[in-house]
Amino acid sequence: MEVDEFVIGGQRPGKRGRGADGKTIVIAAVEKKGKKLGRIRLQVVPDCSASILEQSVKANVTPGSTVKTDGWIGYNFLDESSYIHDQVIASHIAEKETVLPGVHLIASLVKRLIIGTFQGRFDPKHLQSYLDEYVFRFNRRTSRNIGKKFMRIAQQVTASTMTTYEQIKAGASRFSLLAN
Fold first, then answer.
1. Residue 177 has pLDDT above 60, yes or no
2. Predicted TM-score (pTM) of this structure
3. What is the domain partition of the chain in residue ranges?
């Protein structure tokens, strides 16, 4: 399993990467099946702190799994928990493109989705919903039975908690709904 974070948002002057203003941070967890990609998880997060990363990994990765990350210190909790931590530091490797290729592919596909479908514009408060829909389609891309896809959508709708229109307008996210 590869785990990394990336930012989505238009070009703005100033700091790049994790601390950029006006960008939305997304954590990606990508299952690897040899050279192929398995299931993915995408989650909008308020920051890249260790507590947020730990919460996301524990919610999306089975304990005992090998988790491959970059050198970000926010992932240091993996050394203390029930995960096998494979830390790859890009500056120590000659072939930079081999560092977390699954996450980087998914990040580029998501950014292409935003550019192609939403013409590069989106409201950050609605991004998690867009990502959830993309994850659903991606994780079922190899399913041959359309009836099972429909059944799964119906199951998820009936099992999900009700989100009011006011919560949607306010930009309710998984983190804000968990806090209530």
1. no
2. 0.78
3. 2-179
